[in-house]
UniProtKB/TrEMBL annotation:
Pfam families: Ni_hydr_CYTB (PF01292). GO terms for molecular function: electron transfer activity; formate dehydrogenase (NAD+) activity; formate dehydrogenase (quinone) activity; metal ion binding. It comes from the Bacteria. Keywords: Cell membrane, Electron transport, Heme, Iron, Membrane, Metal-binding, Transmembrane, Transmembrane helix, Transport. Gene3D superfamilies: Transmembrane di-heme cytochromes, Chain C. It is found in: Cell membrane. It comes from Ramlibacter agri. The chain crosses the membrane at residues 21-41, 53-74, 114-136, 148-174. SUPFAM superfamilies: Transmembrane di-heme cytochromes. It is a multi-pass membrane protein. One of its GO terms (cellular component) is formate dehydrogenase complex. This is Formate dehydrogenase subunit gamma. One of its GO terms (biological process) is respiratory electron transport chain.
């Protein structure tokens, strides 16, 4: 078999899956509190009271986990001029014409967009969450601020869930990506096809 290429260390993968698991817990508990239609999720967390108690802690741990992940990948997610060109041509990718896309580095513009969406949404969730966290912090803030915080919290949660759906769909769509995050390696053919500039970089050609 051809030499495999390392894409993620063990630590990064553990970190990523912890964040994913905490996202699931924070998301399900959050939805359960948000609307009665999702109330049945409380059965997974020991009932309504426990769901309300646990939700902010799941959220806090998710943000903490993401901070570590953020510092491992942010440099590779910085926007480059070629990313704008990639975005312009992205409708062709959606039609299955990957050959029409400009060569990209470790992440494509879509992945970068989702990454920054995650970062902004988690920051908003983190800050607004404290403003109405009962019984610890909420009483320190005026009611109007708390109401605005609740609204922003719900909008950021909605966008984060949308972002994760796109993220998971793309991960499954690009065959070989999930293995990068479960085993840590990719094949040279995968790297050459989907991330040619990164492939050249890891081979020392750039
Ligand atoms: C729950 C299901 C999830 C699946 C199946 C999944 C899958 C993946 C896969 C396969 C990759 C590697 C992509 C590549 O190297 O090209 C990846 C990267 C990444 N994932 Fe996830 N993920 C999930 C949830 C999450 C969540 C909830 C977050 C954060 C809120 C997250 C944040 C990231 C980040 C920051 C990267 C690094 C790539 C980048 O910066 O764009 N993932 N994920």
């Amino acid at each position: 078999m051809a030499r495999l290429i390392r894409r993620y260390s063990d630590g990064t993968r553990i970190n990523h899956w912890m964040v994913a698991l905490l996202f699931l817990c924070a998301g399900l508990t959050g939805l359960a509190i948000f609307h009665p239609v999702f109330w049945f999720f409380t059965a997974l967390f020991g009932g309504g009271t426990w769901t309300k108690i646990l939700h902010p802690f799941f959220g806090l741990l998710m943000v903490l986990g993401f901070v570590f992940l953020f510092f491992q990948v942010w440099r590779d997610n910085l926007w480059q001029p070629r990313d704008s060109e990639w975005m312009r041509r992205s409708p062709r990718l959606l039609r299955g014409d990957e050959d029409a896309m400009p060569p990209i580095g470790k992440y494509n513009a879509g992945q970068k967009g989702v990454f920054w969406l995650f970062a902004v949404c988690l920051l908003v969730l983190f800050v607004t969450g404290f403003v109405f966290w009962q019984p610890y912090f909420a009483n320190a803030f005026p009611i109007l601020l708390r109401r605005i915080a609740v609204l922003l919290h719900a909008i950021a949660a909605f966008l984060l869930i949308l972002g994760v759906i796109i993220h998971v769909y793309a991960a499954i769509w690009v065959k070989g990506s999930v293995r990068a995050m479960t085993r840590g390696w990719v094949t040279p053919a995968w790297a050459r096809r989907h991330h040619p500039l990164w492939y050249r970089q890891v081979n020392g050609d750039q």
